[in-house]
């Protein structure tokens, strides 16, 4: 009986701690915003952090990986202080949801074609990035390796 009560108290403590941390962050942010210089400093810091995240995400967009995720995360950071970022984030969410809903309504052939086009574009971007940065042509290297496979020789 005692262990059940202790487990219940642990869960309540964890929930209160999580709530307490969020509350402390809000109180800390409100104390900073209470002063004119603190409000401006907070806006500048959030603007810089969000801007760096958006720019870094946009640089990562052409490459396979979390580029768009970082862009949206940067917009979410900016939206905590700037109304224009909040409107832009809502607009982007609506467009992404509309495109996702449209693709889900399509038949399997359209989904496969969309996936193949996406993979082809990602592959072309990776090929171009490797070719331009290192000078290695991945297609040529793959064809050279393919020629050495035993079943590919005549």
Describe the structure.
The mean pLDDT is 83. This protein has a domain of 49 residues. It starts with a helix and ends in a 7-residue tail after the last helix. Helices cover 84% and strands 0% of the residues. It is elongated and about 75 Å long. The chain is an all-alpha fold and 154 residues long. The longest helix has 32 residues.
Detail the topology: elements first, then pairings.
Layout: H1 2-33, H2 36-60, H3 67-79, H4 83-105, H5 108-134, H6 138-147
Helix pairs in contact: 1-2, 2-3, 3-4
InterPro entries: CHP02611, Uncharacterised_PGPGW_TM
Transmembrane segments: 41-61, 67-87, 108-129
Keywords: Membrane, Transmembrane, Transmembrane helix
Task: Give a summary of the structure in a few sentences.
This is TIGR02611 family protein. The protein has helices at residues 2-33, 36-60, 67-79, 83-105, 108-134, 138-147.
Which structural category do the helix and sheet elements fall into? mainly alpha
Order of helices and strands: HHHHHH
Q: Which value, in Å, is the CA radius of gyration?
A: 25 Å
Major sheet characteristics: none
Low-confidence stretches: none
Roughly how many Å apart are the termini?
77 Å
**Can you count the beta strands?**
0
> What is the helix tally?
6
Average pLDDT rating = 83
| Shape label | elongated
Strand content: under 5%
The percentage helix is: over 70%
Organism: Thermobispora bispora (strain ATCC 19993 / DSM 43833 / CBS 139.67 / JCM 10125 / KCTC 9307 / NBRC 14880 / R51)
InterPro entries: CHP02611, Uncharacterised_PGPGW_TM
Keywords: Membrane, Transmembrane, Transmembrane helix
Protein name: TIGR02611 family protein
